[in-house]
Amino acid sequence: MKKGARNALLVIIAIAVAFGGGAAWQFTMARQARTDLQEVQQQLDGIQKQRALDGLESALAMAALAAGLGDYERGRQLASDYFTALQEQVNVAEPANRASLEDVLARRDAIITELSRAEPASGRDVAALLTAFQRAIGKEPTVPPALVSDTAGGPAM
Asked: Model pTM?
């Protein structure tokens, strides 16, 4: 083999090795970026789920407050919005939480009926529902126990 052909072959081999090394490095970087993106996406999904649950909790707390202050119609509207949003969350909830959220959702008709009838007990019943919801999502209840304690078959305020 002539010296010129040998040098050309060595240059081609060097270029191939450099290209292969660069391609392998880029592949590794792309794979790491995909892994990082998946981790961030999972964190974002968790944050969005928590944000949705926090919004539900706030809506129900506002409904309890409105009903407790005697604004039953506003409490009914807020509770209705809460139950509509809760239905969406039950459909995407973790299987471990789904049953307890369905139990909370099962109280929809009773709560809405109480509020639409402007029953004074509806405020404490919505507060009791808030406590049940907080437990269903794994939070420590924030409603004072005296507002939702069971006495003679029902919550007392």
From this structure: 0.70
